[in-house]
Amino acid sequence: MIFVVLLLHFYFCEQFRWTKHIRSDRVDNMIAKDFTVDFSKPVVFQVGHLGETYQEWVHQPILSNESPRFFESDFVEFLTRTVWWAVPAIWLPLACWCISMSVRRGYTLPQIALMVIFGMFLWTFLEYCFHRFLFHIETKSYWGNTFHYLIHGCHHKHPMDGLRLVIPPAETAILAIMFWYPYKFLFTPSASPAIFGGGLIGYVMYDCIHYYVHHGQPTKQIPKSLKKYHLNHHFRIQDKAFGITWAFWDRVFGTFPQKKAAEKSI
After folding, report:
1. Helices (DSSP H) in the chain: which residue ranges?
2. C-alpha–C-alpha distance, residues 92 and 62, integer Å
3. Among 11-20, 38-47, 137-146, where is mean pLDDT lowest?
4. pLDDT above 60: residue 18
5. How many other C-beta atoms can be found within 10 angstroms of the C-beta atom of residue 98?
6. Which of 60, 152, 186, 223 could be a cystine partner for 135, CB 3.0 to 4.6 Å?
């Protein structure tokens, strides 16, 4: 499955990566001791040298559409770039296939719908936990900073980089395999595929909404509120507002921003 995902990923990225790739010639002005991050060179193995200043540096966003190079290897580099529509194109068919497995085992459509909705609800909890407890870990060691930059720091440093906004399919495939087995353990063999499929649908919604709140221009109240809520997380209250598709878990766990902060706009 991972090989198929890699092929699809390569196909999608090849169409856009050269048109979207703008290599920066600017040298970042944040210096840790004697070290300077040079965006004219691959950056991933540079950021670890920032040490204790990394957290401050990574939360000083560069507001441009630049897509800095991560790695010297062209193959590894393309794995880090993903067009947003690759997410539904790859994962919605798999979600439908998973759901069909439960349909074939005799569940009625109302039962299937409940299982799918439950799977989507579980995803919102996983989304919150990943964002709060993994993507926003405090790091200062070389490998800690490097790991954090790869999984989320790059997004806070370059929030408008459209090719590194959704999760790369290769990474999603690994996570999907990791979660498939706990789902099979927690739920019955006949119900787990539909619940897992609902989680995949929830993930697709998450990544598409995440892309839209960064690059879309909403006119309706609900999407405007989602955009405002998330951009405040980026630029004003980075230790709050971890939910992207839903603020429910922020309210449950006390990370919903105070009213005055939430009402501020960028």
Report:
1. 2-20, 44-47, 54-58, 74-79, 86-103, 109-129, 142-148, 154-157, 169-186, 192-215, 221-235, 248-252, 259-263
2. 33
3. 11-20
4. no
5. 24
6. 152
The contacts of residue 110 (CB under 8 Å, 6+ apart) are none
Return the structure tokens found at 45. 């193995």
Specify the pLDDT at position 217.
94
Per-residue pLDDT of 191-214, as tens digits, reads: 999 999 999 999 999 999 999 999
Say what the pTM is: 0.86
Contacts of 159 (CB under 8 A, 6+ apart): 61, 63, 214, 234
Tell me if 90 sits within 8 A of 83, measured CB to CB: no
For residue 56, the tally of other CB atoms under 10 A from its CB is 11
Counting other chains too, the contacts that 35-38 makes at CB distance below 8 Å and 24 or more residues apart are none
